[in-house]
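input
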Amino acid sequence: MVMATVVLVTGGTGLVGKALQHIIETEPVGSRYGKLPNETWIFASSAEGDLRDPAQTNKLYEKYKPTHVIHLAALVGGLFKNMKYKLTFLRDNILINDNILHASYTHKTTKLISCLSTCVFPDKVEYPLDENKIHSGPPHESNFGYAHAKRMVDVQNHAYKEEFGCNFTSAIPTNIFGPHDNYDLEDAHVIPALVHKCYLAKKNGTPFIVSGTGKPLRQFIFSYDLAKLFVWMLREYDDVEPIILSVGEDEEVSIKEVTDAIVKAVGFEGHYSFDTTKADGQFRKPATNKKLLDCHGAFKFTPFEQALDLSVKWFVENYDSARTGVNKKP
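output
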């Protein structure tokens, strides 16, 4: 008898959870990135249980009896929140992760993949970033609470494997963007923040002003591409060591190129400029995707402008329901 597979996605209504849902619903069944026959996918939201609480986490596992878990849930925030609430980010994420890992062990989950972030890497490090450098120095001061909590997942994965033989692993994506992002101007990452700002400038007929020089370089991964790679990991990647999920180092894009693409996608025709009195942040922090390409083989990433265009169209069409931080109801 074939055992039914149940894949539980925590944080299932966020940027990556929604992308996974899209891929599972649109890729052909049984294909490399598609769902399997006899497989149920559950996209759990925070409304289904507070994962900081072990009892509520256990209840979630008892309800769905997952055979596989993709753990995306986290307390996340932009730079300002990370700096202001270091202990909250540290403690809440440690609790969430510890509960998910332990529930996956006690409920005999076949496989668990947790999502980390490139902020786990040391502040002072030789580039490019690779999977062996995670613990080779302290993370950046601005988000050390969040970064340490995420690092501990890697430590726990190794410990669960060594002590109990658990198949637990983790993924480290670079900067993710796509539909269903967080567009709250107080707290959003660079692409959704710029998309929202540009949208408002067009709507209100005001100038579009971008902080910094536009020169820093970043690697961005489209959420739909990342979702395919999570499905691939679920099926084919069984190593406890983390793996960076990213476009190549040669795919870095400057903030100016990002802004130009956003201006084009939004159809903004007003005046746009860079406020060079504002700080730029790190010039570049490239990560290598060599391990990914060695393990997966060649992967066809969506061209940046095409992915951005799709993301902007989604935002414009769904402005009223998107996470903008704006109270749009009178």
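quick obs: The CA atoms of residues 188 and 220 lie 15 Å apart.
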